[in-house]
Amino acid sequence: MQVAYYPGCTIKVSAQHHERAALAVLRALNIELCELPEWNCCGVLHSLTDDNLIRHMAPIRMFARLEEQGAHEMTTLCDMCFNTLAQANTWAKERPERIRAINSTSGGELDYDGRAQILHLLQLLRDRVGLAAIKARVRRPLRGLTIYPYYGCKLLRPSEVAMDDPETPRVLHDLMLALGATVAEGPLQTQCCGSYHVVDREQLVTNRVAATTDEARERGAEALVLSCPLCHYNFDSFQGSNHAALPIFYYTQLMGIAFGLEPEELGLDAHRVALLPVLLEHELVPEGVQVN
After folding, report:
1. Is the bond preceding 229 in cis, omega lying within 30 degrees of 0?
2. Which residue in 3, 56, 252, 286 has a CA-CA distance of 20 to 30 Å to 211?
3. What single DSSP character describes residue 283?
4. CA–CA separation, 251 vs 97, rounded Å?
5. For 261-281, what is each residue's pLDDT tens digit?
6. pLDDT of residue 290
7. Residue-range domains of the chain with CATH
């Protein structure tokens, strides 16, 4: 399977380990991500201004680029990119005259017809690959490891672009079960981590991270699993010092461990909170493994 791939800025800068693990896992599943040759920033946030066409040009341009490659579907690893692209595409499709206006404003650069679709990689794994195929690829089940899935905002809200049930999501839960892990859950798994408030309201982020990690521990979790690079930054950086910090895994990294891939392929060293101790405790990586 070949899939068009939109990486976005964060994946190429601060979440390279997520991409590294994703590429390794997808190779194991015989899937090739074909990175779009000309991609730009998605715009980071969906514009709330209905008539600001220029603000929507960045995400719409990516759908036009996709169609130039002869494709109508692409995937991304970044929750923020997924949300921004999906909302902009929905906004444009609801009133086709918006697409025509953006195309005309581009000076002939764009010719988007509104048929394209953006999939988060979790959707691709769930809906195209299937959990049965993922489970069949497991070589080192995550037995004994209790994981708390954290979803945050951008996969689930607004409901018009949600890739799972906004109130009771299952995709990370089901994926962890397919990998052999035990799942611990709680109501805070869909709470916002504080997002970009880390810039000017660090205490808000610290409080939210502490509440969620405390809930995870109370329910027996030894680690968190998530998909969003911004959530990962906040959870990996702002856990309180009054107790041992929980390791924060990308789902791609846990898939790689369960698939029996080499730890060096999975970017396990690019975290503030060390991942190896909990993996060694459950004999999920060999003793003395080096990941640098």
Report:
1. no
2. 252
3. T
4. 39
5. 999 999 999 899 999 999 999
6. 67
7. 2-121 (1.20.1050.140), 141-281 (3.40.50.11810)
